[in-house]
Amino acid sequence: MNAQPTASHFVNGAYVEDDAGDVIECIYPATGEVIATLHEATPAIIEQAISSTKAAQVTWRAMTGTERGRILRRAADIMRERNHDLSVLETKDTGKPLQETLVADATSGADALEYFGGLAGAITGEHIPLGGDFVYTVREPLGLCVGIGAWNYPTQIACWKGAPALACGNAMVFKPSETTPLSALKVAEILHEAGLPAGLYNVIQGRGAVGAALIADARVDKVSLTGSVPTGRKVYAAAADGMKHVTMELGGKSPLIIFDDANLEDAVSGAILGNFYSSGQVCSNGTRVFVQSGIKEAFLSRLTERLTDVKMGDPFDETVNFGPLVSEAQMNIVLGYLDKGASEGARLVIGGKRADRDGFFIEPTVFADVTDDMTIAREEIFGPVMSVLNFETEEEVMARANATEFGLAAGVFTQDLARAHRVVTGFEAGTCYINTYNLAPVEAPFGGSKMSGVGRENSKEAINHYSQVKSVYVGMGPVEAPF
Ligand code: NAD
Questions:
Q1: Nearest alpha-carbon partner for 154 in 92, 232, 235
Q2: Is 162 strand, coil or helix?
Q3: Which regions of 17-78 does DSSP assign to beta strands (E)?
């Protein structure tokens, strides 16, 4: 296997190139160096990507679920065998430390392939008795699904969408983010090496316009987007025009509530995981950390101590645990929020500036005494910036935690079992945590409510979003008619 993909697109079982497409430069965020030059999909490539899925899907949906699942599970095994090479590629593409990519990217992609591979044979309908007559239901594939990815977890997103789509008997055309175009090509390559028939999982490159062209095509039955709320609005509207199915995995500004009785060390760990892993570029991050007044000073002082263990540097040094932002553009967005935090009166506890080194590094930053109206407490930053807000009572904090248009995730740290469940019941969010934060195993549904999304990924829930029910009424007696 070549370590890097050998062309821009993977269509109908092979790498293809069309130099007429606009150039996409793939930049290694730790140095700014160009590591690959790709081309956006031209209309000819888009046509090839869509038309090749159609014929392939007819055969694929007719196979048994067990046969389909076997191919996905084989792909999972290959991904695990190649984890090191795939992690190196992911680190180059995203800048995330190898220490992270080795355990969180291809491995979680493999988990999805294995899980949905196992489930494929168990996708069934039901029997509904009606006296003599009966109805049976059939869970059928949707047809052609389009997946559109964000740049923070390129391999994982390609698999979280591809695995359930294929398990249900669909075909997929996947468009990765233009910022991190490489890894999804390797996913396609591995799926085909595992025996996936050509045309069932095509990967094409491009910016938003290529995504929009895919959604506009009448042959497409579903679109699953991972991206920001503004993009989600556009994609959802375009899909509505063709009455297509959608899954929307969008942004967040999630609350993490720490009560006085919380285990301090665990609460600090949760806040670190929920703000600084992947340099803060995680959609479900708990970026509004509400800390009750009795534990606030202890929390801030322990957090500051723990942040001295941050090791920023060369992402390929396996002792490094904190990498750059994915791009210069994203770094500049985050720097803008750092200025806003300071100018709107938040107290800077640690960090607060670009690191003095090559690449797009920003120091892990904590603002304290943040108030609900400040920009850094309202808008998704998608960078290593934690806002700590003070609170006194459960009732007060619940109202403030939910006072946002987002509803992706929410977490609570407390030793009081009844309170933990009461708080989670009150959260207006799709993915909640008690005494931990940001874990996303494939067995559990993942997704948001309110502006953060529609539908769920992972778990048995995802099957409902990549299939539809046909109901069949079977008459067993004479047919009665009024005349
Ligand atoms: P983005 O919205 O800028 O882009 C996402 C994808 O949509 C890209 O592939 C882009 O090319 C494509 N796109 C843009 N305009 C389009 C259009 N009009 N039609 C079709 N496709 C279009 O997001 P990003 O900057 O790549 O990623 C960061 C965002 O993603 C954050 O808001 C983050 O919270 C969110 N995110 C959500 C999840 C989740 O599971 N909920 C996971 C990761 C990231």
A1: 92
A2: helix
A3: 23-28, 33-39
Q: What is the pLDDT of residues 161-213, one digit of tens each?
A: 999 999 999 999 999 999 999 999 999 999 999 999 999 999 999 999 999 99
Dig out the tokens for 135 from the structure. 């109805």
Kindly give the distance from the C-alpha atom of residue 470 to the centroid of ligand 1, in angstroms, as a whole number: 32
- To the question of pTM greater than 0.85 for the whole model, the response is yes
What is the tens place of the pLDDT at every residue in 285-318? 999 999 999 999 999 999 999 999 999 999 999 9
Q: Is the pLDDT reported for residue 63 higher than 60?
A: yes
Find the 74 Cα to ligand 1 centroid distance in Å. Answer: 29
Query: Can 283 be counted among the known catalytic residues?
Result: yes
The finding on whether 224 has its CB within 6 A of some atom of ligand 1 is no
Testing ligand 1's pocket by substitution, the residue of 183, 223, 283 carrying the most ligand atoms inside 8 A of its CB is: 283
Whether residue 333 has its Cβ less than 6 Å from ligand 1: no
Structure tokens at 194: 């595992």
State in Å: Cα 232 to ligand 1 middle.
7
Mean residue pLDDT of the chain comes to 97
Is the CB of residue 376 less than 8 Å from the CB of residue 336?
no
For 167, the 3-state DSSP assignment is helix
**Cβ(211) – ligand 1 distance below 6 Å:** yes
CB distance 354 to ligand 1 below 6 Å: no
The answer to whether residues 90 and 109 touch, using CB atoms and an 8 Å cutoff, is: no
Q: What is the mean pLDDT of residues 16-34?
A: 98
